[in-house]
Amino acid sequence: MCLTETLDEMVSNGTLSPEVAIQVLVQFDKSMTEALETQVKSKVSIKAHLHTYRFCDNVWTFILQDAIFKNEETQENVGSMKIVACDAKLLTQ
Amino acid sequence: MATPSVSAVYIHVVEDVISKVRDEFLSVGVGENVLNELQGLWEMKMIQCGAISGPIERSAAPKGNAGPITPVHDLNVPYEGTEEYETPTAEMLFPPTPLQTPMQTPLPGNIDQPLYHMPTPSGPSDYGSAQDARSNIDVKPGRPSPYMQPPSPWMNQRPLGVDVNVAYVEGREEVDRGTPHQPATQDFFLMSSGKRKRDDYAQQVQPGGYIPQQDGPGDSTSDYFQLQVNQAQSSDKNNRVLANGDLGSSQQHGAHNGYDDLFRLPGAANEEYNTPAEHGHHVATPNPVQNEAAEDEEPSLNEDDDDDDLDDIDQGDDEPDTHHLVLAQFDKVTRTKSRWKCTLKDGIMHINNKDVLFTKATGEFDF
């Protein structure tokens, strides 16, 4: 999303304080989550070979190989890719 | 499919963020112009990403997501979350231990105790007696507590590696799965505690050479008391299966610790003790050998394998990782044998240079 880049730039420029930048990121997170909830209505199904799974600090990481993505419109094949997912329940709290 | 809808969502997010951060900015004393600059830069970069869609800049986009999404939630949420999610883990892990320990107690205990009784008839029936109970209590703060602590890091680590799912799945579908896992983890604990114990003993024995002094802080009173204490210790040991069936060594502990003063056997005891402790109880006890082998293997299995895998992937899949990325929240992750199913929600996919937003995603993977 380039937001972090922008914030980095501005913080290193001295135009923004790190605290404010963090605030922006926090707000971005909220807004993004909310936007995903309210503005997006699509479902995707993924089938793949799971190369690695990892669950650390409440974050799941899957590294997939030969993944097939299907949504309403299209299907995508990807040789290898990564899923990073944090806990939905933690987010809503 | 960097579709209009996707970019519309992005723009909406940008505006939402900017508007909601405005108060923050003003309250901190940062001018509106800075805010506008932020928005301008941000949108410009967004457009660059979307317009050029080169792999590098594209990859920058998901990274930008990865930055905020993961860490920020770590900042906010886990404070509440950890309580909820970690306590069950501990609860799940601890109760089994007491359950299993008593199970194994009688075997070594019954065999051990009589041997101790032979020199000192004073100690009556081992488990029931009030004396032993008392001495147990007396000893526990001094002795076992250090032993109780070491396992805990193992407990915390192991299950996280092995059982992780259980913490989450516990309340949901996979109560069944939790149970099969537990024996394995318990074995780890037992073995690890056993090893700890042995190590601790070795440490205590070697530097001083004379055990009674080492034991002093814990047991220092009369020889009689020491005897009782030692019995208690041995029964303690057995209770917690610290000896892990290595009767020979535990006997040696006992004789060694308790009867040093009485029988003047420190040297022999030391030797005998050290040998099994350091060399893995080859002579005295076949069982511990297995245990130690298991101990040695399993940590190395877990650690090395994981590290290797992760390293390999981090290095080998570096490119694909940055190219194709899904960032989402997980609703649940379940596993049946090697088949993993997960339901994600509210995520972003960046695949084949396209951004796809989704509210729900189901994944089926075979490992």
From TrEMBL, chain A:
Major location category of this protein: nucleus
Pfam families linked to this entry: TFIIA_gamma_C (PF02751), TFIIA_gamma_N (PF02268)
Transcription found in the keyword field: yes
Keyword list, A-Z: Nucleus, Transcription, Transcription regulation
Domain Transcription initiation factor IIA gamma subunit N-terminal positions: 1-36
CDD domains for the chain: TFIIA_gamma_C
Localization terms from the record: Nucleus
One GO term (biological process): transcription initiation at RNA polymerase II promoter
InterPro entries: TFIIA_a-hlx, TFIIA_b-brl, TFIIA_gsu, TFIIA_gsu_C, TFIIA_gsu_N
Top-level taxon of origin: Eukaryota
Record's keyword annotation contains ATP-binding: no
A GO cellular component annotation in the UniProt record: transcription factor TFIIA complex
Transcription initiation factor IIA gamma subunit C-terminal domain location: 47-88
Function, in words: TFIIA is a component of the transcription machinery of RNA polymerase II and plays an important role in transcriptional activation.
Family: Belongs to the TFIIA subunit 2 family.
Name of the molecule in the record: Transcription initiation factor IIA subunit 2
Native source species: Aristolochia fimbriata
From TrEMBL, chain B:
Family according to the record: Belongs to the TFIIA subunit 1 family.
CC annotations in GO: transcription factor TFIIA complex
Natural source organism: Aristolochia fimbriata (White veined hardy Dutchman's pipe vine)
Single biological process term from Gene Ontology: transcription initiation at RNA polymerase II promoter
InterPro entries on file: TFIIA_asu/bsu (IPR004855), TFIIA_b-brl (IPR009088)
Keyword line: Nucleus, Transcription
Alphabetized PANTHER family for the sequence: TRANSCRIPTION INITIATION FACTOR IIA SUBUNIT 1
Location of the protein in the cell: Nucleus
Ranges for region Disordered: 119-144, 195-321
Protein name: Uncharacterized protein
Record field: compositional bias (Acidic residues): 293-320
Compositionally biased residues, Polar residues: 219-236
Taxonomic superkingdom: Eukaryota
Organism lineage: Eukaryota, Viridiplantae, Streptophyta, Embryophyta, Tracheophyta
